[in-house]
Design brief:
The complex is a heterodimer of chains A (209) and B (190). Chain A is 52% helix and 23% strand. Chain A is of the alpha+beta class. The relative contact order of chain A is 0.11. A four-stranded antiparallel β-sheet of chain B has the order 1-2-4-3. The longest helix of chain B is centred in the N-terminal third of the chain and has 64 residues. At the A-B interface, helix 2, helix 3, strand 2, helix 6 and strand 3 of A face helix 1, helix 2 and strand 1 of B. Strand 3 of chain A pairs antiparallel with strand 1 of chain B.
Chain lengths: 209, 190
Amino acid sequence: MEANFAQNSPKLSVSLPSSPTQRSIFEAGLLVVIIVLLYFFVVSPKKADLKTQTAVLAEKKEAEELSTKNLENLQGLVGKLASHKAQFEKLDESLPLVGKTIHLRMLVESLAESSGVTLTSINVTNKGEGVVAGDAALIANPFSVVRELQPLTASVTATGNFDQLFLFLRKIENNARVMNLAGFELSGQGENLLSMKVDFSAYFYGPVK
Amino acid sequence: MAQINLLKQKTIGQSFQAVFPVYATRFLLVVLLVVVAYYVWIFISLKKTNAQIAETEAKLAQNQEAISKIQDTDQLFARQNQLKALEGIITEHLYWSQLLPEVAKVTLKRATYSNFAIHPDNTLSLTVSVPNFEDFDKFLQVFDIPKVNESFSEVRVSSFHESETDETSVVQFDVKMKFNPAILEYKKVK
């Protein structure tokens, strides 16, 4: 028995436009679809990527420029450190890096002596005073520790005549170590003798406890 | 009367209909090529941008490493902060001694002070002695003068009494007043 394939097989037919005009219209429509799909699903996401990356690049470049500038500044400033020792000595005199109460006491005593007044009482306190010597970490690298401005409070009573006490007061105010007055009292003690009580704060830029 | 050649018009219309789809297809083909070219350009630009980002990041890391390797940066930062802190306390620094000459300027010659206190709230307390009540009144009147009032104001007498010592009478009183804080600010010595 022979099978007649030619007769039984279904005819495969695609209905393509027959005339050239219709074909062109079909091609144009197809192209529009391709262009739209290509733009929205391929080009557009890539374009968004480019936009994002361009913004990232601008940000990074700005950071890099700043970092280069900082590096140059830092190199310049570190280079100047060694040549400004005298200025640092003055800075340390005005705002010491250590808050030893004994230093302030000695300073006040020397000011009193040079003014001719007699100190009847002197009280210097540092609320956060901890280790005052022999701090190994601080000795190894005195600048690597975190520091902050801290006050020392002092209350001083001195006797003398008006001129001497006035001079003493001026010396406290104008001293290279900054001392800010918080209270001042002057009272008579007898013939030409006055008693002066001053409360003030001196500061140091010490390690945070 | 003008004649209209309808036959010819029909021929033009037909040829336009036949040609337009062909040109439209060609035009769309050009658009497609432009879109593809645009994609290629974006692709290349993205690659370049990514390369530039990597290069910039490397340079940034290099700078940061160079910064971390600089010695004495700790000292530099500590010194900068120390200086900043000093500037802060200097701006708050007041010259209380400047108040004494100002008080002396407005004090009667016959008045003497036995107590003198300056308080942080910009007030001044005085214990004053004058020979009589007339001088007591004069002492207070001074503070009504506008120029004096600019420096010292709101004078209050908290207590007063008269006492006699060695045939001389003295009127003693306690005074509290406000002073102008500008007096305590730094004045350049001329």
